[in-house]
Amino acid sequence: MTLTTTAAPGVRIRDLTVVYRTPHGELPAVRGVDLTLAPGTITGVVGESGSGKSTLALSLLNAVQPPGRIASGSVEIDGIGDVVRLGGERLRQTRGRRIGYVFQAAQNSLNPLKTIGKQLLDLGRSHGVEDLRGLVRDAKELLARMGMDGARVLDSYQHELSGGMRQRVGIMLALVLNAKVVVLDEPTTALDMITQAMILRIVREIHEERGLTTLIITHDVGAVAEIADDLAVMYGGRVVEHGPVEEVLGSPAHPYTQALIRAIPRLSGDLSLARPLPGRPPTLGTLPVTGCVFRERCDRRMPICETDDPAQVVAGGRTVACHAVVPPHAPAEPAMRKEYA
Ligand SMILES: Nc1ncnc2c1ncn2[C@@H]1O[C@H](COP(=O)(O)OP(=O)(O)OP(=O)(O)O)[C@@H](O)[C@H]1O
């Protein structure tokens, strides 16, 4: 094997814009996003519902479906190239084999007419796996690590499994082909908190053992703090802050990240300290066309926020897109304007 196939790959998302067709025309769910996943890291993506997390995850596999489309930008993955430019059989082979994934509601996406084992064999055959016995062995081992009886699960139909069991099957299917890039979109929502923590710990272990580059999307900031190296915070289709997880959570720079953290109920101490962020996140129809996407709910709003979209400014290991935050040594950059139509 060459180094490129054994080393964890880096992922570079550049100027990515994804639009959905609506009665009001094509509107951006992800807009001008730059995000780098360093090789061998777990990057968590958080943000309120509708901020564009799932659309970003789908873009990593070039799997945005109509009425959506990737309007511009690139997703460069070491050893694969620009996924946005892949199509046909190469794209099909890349998904699953090179990029493992669990999409949202994975517990509902299994085939109800085939046992899990049959679906596993179909997956292996469709990717040209010759050692199908080895594949079954690996699948059983992954299921056992996640606290399940592998043989029994492989003999089951989806309706014989609980939502949490199906989610673990989804994680197994994302990992079993040994892909080096793994995208997990809300992989543990159907699980109780203790099982969720256990599964995320196992995901972390497998990530380290295999040298993966992992993107994990969740609503749960606490859960992601446990396993991620880096954190990206999304709002209104933009990555508003990105950096090492302890830094972003320990000293959040963007007013939205600060509000998100203030809104988390604490398990200990005064419950009333949790302060929900007033207002609602924008929908595609209510997203401001000019200026900062967060300004309507921002307590540091300034006149420039009405007119200019803040650029992502890099300072140290952190990226922040906010006019009110000008980190030391970071020259203020001209406002970023993106074409998406
Ligand atoms: N098929 C679609 N057609 C039209 N609009 C869509 C479609 N899918 C998503 N959107 C819109 O795109 C925006 C981003 O959605 P997305 O699902 O990526 O956000 P999210 O952060 O993953 O939300 P959630 O946490 O609820 O899954 C939302 O405003 C959503 O309504």
Can you describe what's shown?
It is built from twelve helices and twelve strands. The radius of gyration is 20 Å and the shape is globular. It has an eight-stranded mixed beta sheet, with helices on both faces. A four-stranded antiparallel beta sheet has the order 2-1-4-5. The N and C termini lie far apart (43 Å). With 341 residues, the chain is α/β, with parallel strands linked by helices. Bound molecules: adenosine-5'-triphosphate. Residues 20, 29, 47, 49-55, 67-68, 104, 283-284 line the site of adenosine-5'-triphosphate (ATP).
In short:
Helix content is 32%, strand content 22%. The chain is α/β, with parallel strands linked by helices. The model is unreliable at 1-5 and 329-341 (pLDDT under 50).
Q: DSSP strand (E) fraction?
A: 15-25%
| SS-based class | alpha/beta
| Rg, Å, rounded | 20 Å
Shape: globular
> Mean pLDDT, nearest integer?
89
Query: Low-confidence segments, ≥5 residues, pLDDT <50?
Result: 1-5, 329-341
Query: Can you list the strand order of the major beta sheet?
Result: 6-7-8-3-9-10-12-11
The count of strands amounts to 12
| H/I helix tally | 12
Helix and strand string, N-terminal first?
A: HEEEHEEHEHHHHEHEHEEHHHEE
Helix content: 25-40%
Q: Bound compounds, please?
A: adenosine-5'-triphosphate
Distance between the termini: 43 Å
Main sheet makeup: 8 strands, mixed
Notable traits:
eight-stranded mixed sheet; ATP-binding; disordered C terminus; four-stranded antiparallel sheet; disordered N terminus; 12 helices; 341 residues; alpha/beta; single chain; globular; membrane; binds adenosine-5'-triphosphate; transport
